[in-house]
Design brief:
Blueprint lengths: L3 H21 L6 H13 L8 E2 L9 E4 H7 L22 H6 L6 H12 L4 E10 L13 E9 L5 E10 L2 H10 L7 H18 L11
């Protein structure tokens, strides 16, 4: 018969194997539930003054996404409004799970893992651009400094808004002044349009309330 110490060693080894297997077991979620919850979030846009102001700490620790990414998650068609454009919805604001779920080339196992992370999030943060008053960035010859009016909205796991931050950003003054100076033709040059869009995206990322986005690896 085995000695008691031998039996204890076998028992400890069995527990270690079981624990190791549990550690490596991947969490999986159903992406269809992500779609359903995203649709609920999209429906529950708060009216001005309907919820209280978020504090900086209220925006850290949840799953984040731009309005454009939310629409993709909800499988809602995206129009051509500037508020839903790529440059007003920088993907740097999206949490990794949100990016994986809208990536058409993502691995199926990665999608299930991202869905689990997304569904188990303690809350959601949506970066929503309400007004894109930037005519030159849209190729319109209205020589004024571009502005974006936006909100950061926090939602609970039941897709109800719990707090909001209202903010706005403008084109850098020097960038805007140079664009105005160079716009001496009937149409705005495409290079100027792109420069103004890139600048507004950068100003948005620099000014957005809450945790700052981590730059993508080169």
């Amino acid at each position: 018969m085995w000695a008691p110490s031998s039996r204890r060693s076998v028992a400890v080894a069995a527990i270690a194997v079981a624990t190791c297997a549990a550690c490596h077991r991947r969490r999986e979620g159903d992406p269809t539930y992500v779609t359903a919850r995203a649709q609920q979030i999209e429906k529950n846009v708060p009216a001005p003054g309907a919820v209280h102001d978020c504090k900086p700490e209220d925006l850290a620790g949840g799953i984040a996404m731009t309005q454009r990414t939310l629409l993709q998650l909800a499988k809602i068609p995206i129009g051509d409004e500037p508020e839903h454009a790529d440059w007003t919805n920088p993907t740097a604001l999206d949490s990794p799970a949100s990016r994986v779920l809208v990536d058409p080339n993502a691995d199926p196992d990665a999608i299930k893992s991202a869905a689990a992370d997304w569904l188990l999030a303690p809350f959601y943060v949506v970066y929503r651009v309400d007004i894109a008053n930037a005519p030159m960035a849209l190729g319109i010859k209205d020589l004024k400094r571009g502005t974006l009016g936006a909100r950061v909205i926090r939602y609970d796991r039941s897709a109800h808004p719990t707090c909001v931050v209202v903010f706005s950003v403008q084109n850098d003054k020097d960038v805007s002044d140079l664009a105005i100076k160079k716009s001496d033709r009937a149409l705005i040059d495409a290079r100027i349009v792109n420069a103004l869009r890139e600048d507004l995206t950068q100003q948005y990322l620099l000014s957005v309330p809450g945790p700052k986005p981590v730059p993508a690896a080169p």
